[in-house]
User: Fold this.
Amino acid sequence: MNKEQKDEMKGSLAWGIGILILALVSTYARRLGYIDGDTVTRLVIGANGLMIAWFGNRLPKTFVPNACARQLRRVAGWSLALSGLVHTALYAFAPMPVAVWGGTTAVLAGIAVTMGYGLALRANTKAA
Assistant:
């Protein structure tokens, strides 16, 4: 395992542990009556959106030798970063039904953009 992979693993573990700690602390605060259940849900799921945005930001920075793969990673990075931020913003400010549907749609749209661009890039490469 090289240094880049170790750094990526450390970041991933930090996100996982951080979200777990956030969930435990917010659940404890809810039991003490400081926050309600809706706030716990918004905090934890909003943190998931920030994690998606972080991974999207990191994606284009990893080295790949193929030019097409670099193009795909840039598009994937932008689409995941933006969809993660929209997801987080909806969970922070929108009513819960809107946040659930809108946040899910935003993440699915980010995935669809990435897949669509990848398939189009593949078709153009095969055609050439």
